[in-house]
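Task card 7
Instruction: Convert sequence to structure tokens.
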Amino acid sequence: MDNFLTVKTADGKDWQILVLDTFTVDEYPNKNYIVYTFGEQESPETIKSYISVLNESDSYFTLEAMADEEEKDIVREAYQNMLLESGEE
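Output:
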């Protein structure tokens, strides 16, 4: 079963995203991260994916860009390690 979410942009447009994964990292224990795609093909075998901070507030979620390059690097590396451990690429 695919996990689709509808997100609303700041200008009021709705976009449907496919949630690929959610996870946390030890360095940022109070944050949840989401890996998602809009279905854009990077090559015939791969789709372009994104990672954002996933915030939950009352009955809705918001996606937030990561604040700095160090956080981006740590989160990307953690996700790549998770994929390698699970045997995925």
